[in-house]
Amino acid sequence: MTILAQQVQDELASAVSKDQLDLPTLPEVALRIRDAAEDENISVQSLAAVISEDPGLTGRMIKVANSPMYRAANTIEDISTAVARLGINFTASLATGMAMAQMFQATSDVVDRKLRTVWSRAAEVAGISGVLAKNFTRLRSDQAALAGLTHIIGVLPILSWAEDHPELVRDSLTLDKVIDSIHGSLGTMILNSWDFPEEIALVPSQYTEFSRKVAEPDFVDVVMVANLQTLVGTDHPFTQLDWQEIQAFKNLGLDPDMEASQLEDLEEDLVAAKDAFV
Asked: Hey, what domains does the chain have and what are their CATH numbers?
């Protein structure tokens, strides 16, 4: 790690320990959706009305409802029918995650491009996570998709901090090193502050812990495999690891060497699922 990267990491760690780092808060629409879903008597129409206050979110939710993960015979064209198909808990989880797209914006062109790249990657991992959970585990696919959407949420405060430190924005390699080093712990801190379920909140800090071993597949396993799947064919350092030694593949019943053929029948679903979250 460069001297600048170490300095930035130390400063951010100090800010966190002193509670001086502003953690992002959920968008207002996400808070309203969560509050509505916590009402045991909430109706499909009432939740749909809350979501429909945000046209962009409404369109994305209808798109997901028509994706291969949840498709049925008829195409859905309105948010009430989408909520009815997905279910209230399903809808609330996904809408909360997708509302976070509003947070991925910045005042600087450089940081804005980085944020858009981060969101695009989160959406891709979310789509793959949902399909993997549905086909290879008993985990809820909506929760798996939410875990995928939030697995790099820790990048937000780092980039927010970077906007006030132009020397870091100008040094993209150092910025990437800082992100790789600390976004996971920050991500788990953020999700805990948002009262996310523990099994999802720990994903950011553990999805690259390739030596971890658990008896049953969990959301960390799903996001870990989904993230690695996005790196196939690249020269990313993670592709140089021995994936046969990664327990997550075994827990999902996937052989890394045979993964392409195992997922071949799901290729259409994978592509469509990834597109649904963009």
From this structure: 3-25+102-276 (1.10.3210.10)
